[in-house]
Amino acid sequence: MVHSIEAPRVGAQVSVYLDDTYLDQVDSRVIAVGERDGARWAAVEHCVFHPQGGGQPADRGWLEDTEIVPVRDRESGLIVATAPEGGSLPPLGEGQRVRARIDLRTRTAHAALHTAGHLVEAVGRMQGWEMVGSNHFPGQARIEFQAPQSDTRLTDPEGREEATAALRAAVAAAVADDLPVFARCLADGRRVVHLDALHAAPCGGTHVRSLGDLAEVVLPTLKVRKGRIRVSYTATHRSR
Hints:
Blueprint: E1 2-4, E2 14-15, E3 25-36, E4 39-44, E5 46-47, E6 61-63, E7 66-72, E8 79-82, E9 97-102, H1 104-126, E10 130-135, E11 142-146, H2 157-176, E12 181-185, E13 191-195, E14 199-202, E15 214-218, E16 223-225, E17 228-232, E18 234-237
Parallel strand pairs: 1-3, 2-5
Antiparallel strand pairs: 3-4, 3-9, 4-8, 6-7, 6-9, 7-8, 10-11, 11-17, 12-13, 13-14, 15-18, 16-17
Helix pairs in contact: 1-2
Keywords: Hydrolase, Metal-binding, Zinc
InterPro entries: Alanyl-tRNA_Editing_Enzymes, Thr/Ala-tRNA-synth_IIc_edit, Transl_B-barrel_sf
GO molecular function, one term: aminoacyl-tRNA deacylase activity
């Protein structure tokens, strides 16, 4: 699907990936060019690229037929397209019309992991745990909680398996209920992602439309080390 977006705000960048996880192409224009570590970069007005951040990997993307890596430029705050290591961007000028696109399969894989991470956080909070860390990278996905001293189940293997079973049951129930996933922006500009009424958290990542889009959500037995509960997980995007 290609969206052609006209009449944008001059000099502003619109992060369209925040509005539609499943939008994979936009026709836009270059609003800034520059250099980063000696290599050229370009920023487009309507940015379909999610940069690495918030525990989520960057999208795989292209400007026209040139593969790019999206990163957030510290000085300007723009999400800019840079060339992969060993590559280079073609000459681009401000105002030039370009087509930006992403690998939708990679995007939805990342969105499924990120959404599943919110779900794991939600069911952990139902146990009275407080999240202290997260990672949504493929093969590394995990949520870490502070272990409450009052939860004596966590002191032995049988108790940890019991706690994990409770998490698995709560996750399975939320996925079966196909709870909607949506984002709202607060008056202070923060974007808050909701799993219906189950959970809400500030987040700048991409997410599935509803929890029924999650498949193969697997939670190995949780681990406890140095006062922290580590809940590893995997998830994929369901084909519909």
